[in-house]
Amino acid sequence: MTLRKPPATSPAPVAPPPRWAVRTAHLTALVVLPSGLWRIALVLGHPAGYTEAGFEPFATADAKVWMPALSVLSELVALLTMGLVRPWGETVPRWIPRIGGRMVRPMAAVVPAALGAAALTLIWGTVPLWWTYPHEEMTATGNLVVGILYQPLFLWGPLTAAVTFSYYRRHRVRRPG
Fold it and tell me: Which residue windows are transmembrane per the record (predicted)?
C-alpha cells in the first residue's frame, strides 16, 4: 500500500492554536470594554467624571453619534483578533459573497494584524501616564476612575501582537532541510 501525496492546492494541516493564544484573544476583546462602557454612560447623559462644564461637549448630537460608534468599532476591531485563533481565520466563512469557503492566505491575516498591533501600541502606549496630564474638566474622582477604565487599552497592542505571532508560527511555511 502506498500513501498518496496530497495535491499541491491542499493546505498543509495547521496545528490548533495554543491555549494561551485563545485566552489572549479573548482578553483582547475584554480590555477594550471598560472604555467603551464609559463612553456609553456619557451618551446616556451621565457625566461619568466630568464637571458640568467639561461634560457639555459630550451632550451634543454629534457626540451621541461618534462615541457609541467609536465604542462599537473598537470592540469589533478587538474581536477580529479572535479570527487568529478560530476557524474563520483560516477559511473565509461561506456566507461571505464571492470569497466564502476559500482559504485565508496567512500573510493576508498576519500583515494587517501586525500593523494594527503596532498602531495600537503607539496609540495607547502613553495611557499609563494618564495621571501626569492635567484634566481640569474632570472631577478628582472622575480623573481617577477614567484613568483606571482606560488603563487596559495599554495592553491591546501587545496582546494583539502575541496572538498574531502565534498565528504566524502555526501557519508559516516550513522548508525541508
Answer: 27-45, 65-85, 106-127, 147-168
In the chain, domain spans: 19-86+105-171
Q: Residue 50 carries which side chain, given as an amino acid letter?
A: Y
Report whether 78 contacts 29 (CB < 8 A).
yes
Give the three cell numbers for residue 31. 480590555
Distance CA 50, CA 47 (A): 5
For 60-118, the pLDDT digits (tens) are 999 999 999 999 999 999 999 999 999 999 998 888 899 888 999 999 999 999 999 99
CB 89 within 8 Å of CB 106: no
- Cell readout for 57 is 461637549
Asked if residues 48 and 146 have their Cβ atoms less than 8 Å apart, the reply is: yes
Cα separation, 77 vs 116, in Å, equals 9
Which residue type occupies 49? G
Between CA 26 and CA 81 the distance in angstroms is 8
Identify the helix (H) or strand (E) that includes residue 77: helix 61-80
Contact call for residues 35 and 149 (beta carbons, < 8 A):
yes
Q: Whole-angstrom Cα distance, residue 43 to residue 131?
A: 24
Reference 74, options 175, 150, 176; nearest CA is 150
Measure the CA dihedral 30/31/36/41, to 10°: 90
- Check if the beta carbon of residue 133 is closer than 8 Å to that of residue 110: no
